[in-house]
Amino acid sequence: MSQTPESPSGSPGVSHVRISDDRAGQRLDNFLMATLKGVPKSRIYRIIRDGQVRVNGRRAKQTQRLEEGDEVRIPPVRVASDSGPPPAVGQGLSERLSRSLIHEDNWLYIYNKPAGLAVHGGSGISLGLIETLRALYPAEAASLELVHRLDRDTSGAIMVARHRAFLRRLQRLMQGGGVEKRYWLLCRGFKGTQKTIEAPLLKQTHGNERVVRVSREGKASRTDFRVLERFGDVALVEAVLATGRTHQIRVHAQFGGFPLLGDDKYGDADVNSALAEQVGSRRMFLHARLLALRHPETGRELRVEAPLDEAFEEALVRLRGGPAALPASPPTPKPASGEMQRPRAQVKKAAPPARGGRKPAGKPTGKPPGRRSRSRG
């Protein structure tokens, strides 16, 4: 790494960093957060958006993956010298994550992330999942990396690579469709037993809020939905991702006319409020239930299921006790300019069951694991 002399104000000059093999595969924003310790996350994102950070002389997005040999230009940024030690991990969070570990080997951790825990710190959050793990495992702090992400209010299975070289192999596997992801959700208004929704998604930012909507200008996206259990017009549904866009399941469910229960951003506020009283929880009912892949190192099939948390399980128990007394659904709002309407061709329904008997809607995938998978290579 070459760096110009420090200026009289105490701010460093422009730096040019050559990416080594152990940093390859890391996102640009994560690389800068590790390099510019003490600089607020909002400031890091600002210098990326403003084009002050360059990769091989070109502007780059925060999500760009760095490759070995890339040269990153880092502008002069004042690093806080009195920022103090990183926030301590409380005993409660430490114990909770210890119980949430559902797979561990020499290359990979898989956690059953609690709802409400962000995967990254920032925007007023001092500790996310990855910062907490780096604090709990200081010997591995430099090499622990998230393989993918979950929304803060989504619970369930999330992978954390223990080596950056392994991270790159997992990411290539995901890009090639080699990782199966299944989610469970509670929704209202799901018609039939199966749907495939293909609708392009466009990500937008309004101030500090990130919003995704269906738009012809967006990226191609597909989600397959299947009913597992019904409770009146409320349903437990399994979603399988064919693509991995931000908020994909939530926006596709809203677009299909069956918004997630408990979703404050894309759901129905009156329905969410009534459901909270009925089931005793205001959480968003979306859970990453299953991850399945061929382990890049061992070559073995790895299939890990994340048990539902207490709030989700309790909601199912209460829903099974009787029909959901929820307010009537409002009429579908007219799409805003530039948004796509919901044509029938984009919501594909499965054929109805054959006559001659009632066909079950489907059954959940597998049973909660009785013990943790602890293969250590």
UniProtKB/TrEMBL annotation:
Q: Which CDD domains match?
A: PseudoU_synth_RluA_like, S4
Quickly give the catalysed reaction. a uridine in RNA = a pseudouridine in RNA; uridine(955/2504/2580) in 23S rRNA = pseudouridine(955/2504/2580) in 23S rRNA
**Region of interest (Disordered), residue spans:** 322-377
Q: Which segment of the chain is annotated as a signal peptide?
A: none
Where does the RNA-binding S4 domain lie?
26-85
Q: Where is the active site?
A: 151
Q: Which domain of life is it from?
A: Bacteria
What's in the keyword line of the UniProt record?
Isomerase, RNA-binding, rRNA processing
Short name of any one Pfam family annotated for the protein:
PseudoU_synth_2
Record-level Gene Ontology MF annotations? 23S rRNA pseudouridine(955/2504/2580) synthase activity; RNA binding
PROSITE patterns cross-referenced by the UniProt entry: PSI_RLU (PS01129), S4 (PS50889)
Read off the SUPFAM superfamilies from this record: Alpha-L RNA-binding motif, Pseudouridine synthase
Q: Does the keyword Ubl conjugation apply?
A: no
Instruction: Give a yes or no for keyword RNA-binding in this entry.
Output: yes
Q: Which GO terms describe its biological process?
A: enzyme-directed rRNA pseudouridine synthesis
Enzyme Commission identifier(s): 5.4.99.-
Indicate the enzyme's highest-level EC class.
Answer: isomerase
Query: Which InterPro entries does this UniProt record tie to the protein?
Result: PsdUridine_synth_cat_dom_sf, PsdUridine_synth_RluA-like_CS, PsdUridine_synth_RluC/D, PsdUridine_synth_RsuA/RluA, RluA_PseudoU_synthase, S4_RNA-bd, S4_RNA-bd_sf
Hey, which family's this protein in?
Belongs to the pseudouridine synthase RluA family.
Function field: Responsible for synthesis of pseudouridine from uracil at positions 955, 2504 and 2580 in 23S ribosomal RNA.
Under what name is this protein listed? Pseudouridine synthase
Species per Swiss-Prot/TrEMBL record = Isoalcanivorax pacificus W11-5
Its taxonomic path starts at: Bacteria, Pseudomonadati, Pseudomonadota, Gammaproteobacteria, Oceanospirillales
